């Protein structure tokens, strides 16, 4: 599998595309939305995710995965659900069309901070959370990038998503992190040289 594949509004995956080596990931986040209530990732991505998660836990913080692989059909259902709830205009802003979501690759996931409130497990994430600040500065050591960084919306075509990590391998992630660039910029500027 091409770890550097770009999937977006201009680069679609076919309805038949299913990544290889998917493994199930356990999560404690209640209501994590996935295929049959289970979360899957590419095997290598899953291993690196667990390493990153353990590193964050050693620093005293708790994060967990809330979304991983999504089939074309699942993305279609999710998109239609948003249309019914919020209308087509809002759905187009909030959810990728089927075939245009990186989640179909199995190479990315969404994560959240996990905490207790009223004796219940809760989860959320925003750029002010310490969990995000920590992950932002160590994710590249495990081969991950923040796929949709702040200020790069015109390049990626998507709004800033601090919770969305994409696996690209450690060497590539380090270059992207150190140069504060996107995967698109890496492929067009760094790889071409």
Explain the overall architecture.
It is a single chain. The chain is an alpha+beta fold. The protein has helices at 43-58, 72-86, 88-94, 130-138, 153-156, 170-179, 183-190; strands at residues 22-25, 39-42, 63-67, 108-117, 120-124, 144-148, 161-167. The chain has a single domain, classed as Muramoyl-pentapeptide Carboxypeptidase, domain 2. It contains seven helices and seven strands, in the order ββαβααββαβαβαα. Strands 3, 4, 5, 6 and 7 form a five-stranded antiparallel beta sheet that branches. A two-stranded antiparallel sheet has the order 1-2.
Give a nutshell description of this structure.
This protein is an alpha+beta fold and 193 residues long. The protein has helices at residues 43-58, 72-86, 88-94, 130-138, 153-156, 170-179, 183-190; strands at 22-25, 39-42, 63-67, 108-117, 120-124, 144-148, 161-167. Strands 3, 4, 5, 6 and 7 form a five-stranded antiparallel sheet that branches. The protein has a two-stranded antiparallel sheet with strand order 1-2.
């Amino acid at each position: 599998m091409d770890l550097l594949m770009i999937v977006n509004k201009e680069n679609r995956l076919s309805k038949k595309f299913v990544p290889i080596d998917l493994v199930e990931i356990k999560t404690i986040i209640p209501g994590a939305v996935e295929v049959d209530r289970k979360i899957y990732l590419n095997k290598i991505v899953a291993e690196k995710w667990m390493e990153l998660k353990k590193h964050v836990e050693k620093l005293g913080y708790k994060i967990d995965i809330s979304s991983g692989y999504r089939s074309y059909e699942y993305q279609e259902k999710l998109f239609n659900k948003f249309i019914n709830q919020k209308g087509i205009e809002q759905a187009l802003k909030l959810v990728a069309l089927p075939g245009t979501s990186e989640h179909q690759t199995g190479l990315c996931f969404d994560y959240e901070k996990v905490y207790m409130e009223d004796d219940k497990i809760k989860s959320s994430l925003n750029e002010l959370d310490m969990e995000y600040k920590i992950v932002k500065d160590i994710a590249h050591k495990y081969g991950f990038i923040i796929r949709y960084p702040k200020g790069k919306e015109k390049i990626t075509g998507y709004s800033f998503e601090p919770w969305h990590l994409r696996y690209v391998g450690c060497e590539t992630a380090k270059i992207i992190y150190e140069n504060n660039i996107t995967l698109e910029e890496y492929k067009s500027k760094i790889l071409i040289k």
